[in-house]
Specification:
This protein is mainly α. It is built from 13 helices and five strands. Bound molecules: adenosine-5'-triphosphate and L-tryptophanamide. The site of adenosine-5'-triphosphate has 23 residues, from helix 1.
Length: 332
């Protein structure tokens, strides 16, 4: 029997997720869980590389777990767990730190961006972020890492570290590849469609959060920046309308061409309401399910324990191999 491919991905519990996180990441993870061996984590250790309020971090971690399940991640089919529950992530990170160069880490785009944004707190963890991410990925002998375009550089570092370690100590890690899907891979801001929709945008009207209620969703779409024409058509000259068409298609499960046809001859007002209603229709059951799950903490805790146990076993296999290879004494 052919071995199933291993998939690894994670999201940080550092804020409210947007519909970009949903279409670019989580909704694709759901599609992969039947075919592959999937490990999906809540990256709490990555989150503390920028200051977090401890009580809020704890709350958001559980909310994200509930959200994963509410979006369709089935904990019976994959390992769903919290990164800090599996100690091998930090342990492997330490070993990889010794083969990662300061120069290559300081050149990472995200490190440079975040150093600028958090100039008062340029800590070692922020610089080490890609090494911890490499440890996440390499611990499970991952083949594919489904992420948005912004994380591609970090997956490349994971590849470089895997190859470097294998060359130094002998074949140990599988070399992973990023998986960047086309549909919904880049949803743009509703207020400035030249920018990516982001969970940390200061303008709250720019992003649709998965927690937004129907009225908020409708209002934000109504206010979305478009152009002075009144023709619903996908075109580079019409970034606002094109972004809305992309969102509609992703949430409706149709192509952009089909969406264009549906709204041919209709005005922007009608189109924006339809996009809003479609998105709100998808979000409502997710929100309801998430609330139900959060009311049953015992279930969530048990699920996380099982997930961590599953991940722990796989991670332990790789880590003991690594410890042997680098020469840590393990008894004769
Ligand atoms: P922040 O704005 O705080 O940097 P973010 O919204 O970019 O956060 P991340 O936690 O960095 O979110 O990303 C989680 C996953 O969602 C990643 O795989 C990322 O590529 C994807 N993603 C984020 N924003 C979008 C977007 N606008 N469109 C499609 N995918 C996205
Ligand atoms: N940095 C990622 C989250 C993340 C991740 C990973 C993604 C942490 N570890 C391993 C893929 C594989 C982000 O999306 N901000």
């Amino acid at each position: 029997m052919e071995e199933r491919k291993v998939i690894y991905s994670a999201v940080q519990p550092s804020g409210n997720l947007t519909i970009g996180n949903y279409t670019g990441a989580i909704s694709n993870w759901v599609r992969m869980q039947d075919e592959y061996d999937c490990f999906y984590a809540v990256a709490d250790m990555h989150a503390i590389t920028v200051r977090q309020d401890p009580a809020l971090l704890r709350k958001r971690t559980l909310e994200l777990v509930a959200l994963y399940i509410a979006c369709g991640i089935d904990p019976e089919k994959c390992a769903l767990y919290v990164q800090s529950h599996v100690p091998q992530h930090a342990e492997l990170c330490w070993v990889l730190n010794s083969i990662a160069y300061v120069g290559e880490m300081s050149r990472m785009t995200q490190f440079k961006d975040k150093s600028q944004k958090h100039a008062e707190n340029i800590n070692m963890g922020l610089m080490d972020y890609p090494v911890l991410m490499a440890a996440d990925i390499l611990l499970y002998q991952t083949q594919l890492v489904p992420v948005g375009v912004d994380q591609k550089q970090h997956v490349e570092i994971a590849r470089d570290l895997a190859v470097r370690f294998n060359n130094l100590y002998g074949e140990t890690f599988r070399v992973p590849e990023p998986l960047i899907l086309k549909t919904g891979a880049k949803i743009c801001s509703l207020q400035d469609p030249s920018k990516k929709m982001s969970k940390s945008d200061e303008n709250l009207n720019a992003s649709i959060f998965l927690t937004d209620d129907r009225d908020t969703v409708l209002r934000k779409f109504r206010r979305a920046v478009t152009d002075s024409e009144n023709e619903v058509r996908f075109s580079e000259e019409k970034p606002g309308i094109s972004n809305l068409l992309g969102i509609y298609a992703a949430f409706r499960g149709c192509t952009v061409e089909q969406a264009e046809k549906e709204f041919a001859g209709k005005g922007y007002g009608e189109f924006k309401s339809a996009v809003g209603e479609t998105v709100a229709d998808v979000l409502a059951p997710i929100q309801e399910k998430q609330a139900q799950l959060l009311a049953d903490k015992t279930y969530l805790q048990e699920t996380l324990e099982r997930g961590a146990e599953h991940a722990f076993k796989a991670a332990r296999r790789t880590l003991s191999k690594v410890y042997r290879k680098v020469g840590f004494y393990r008894g004769d």
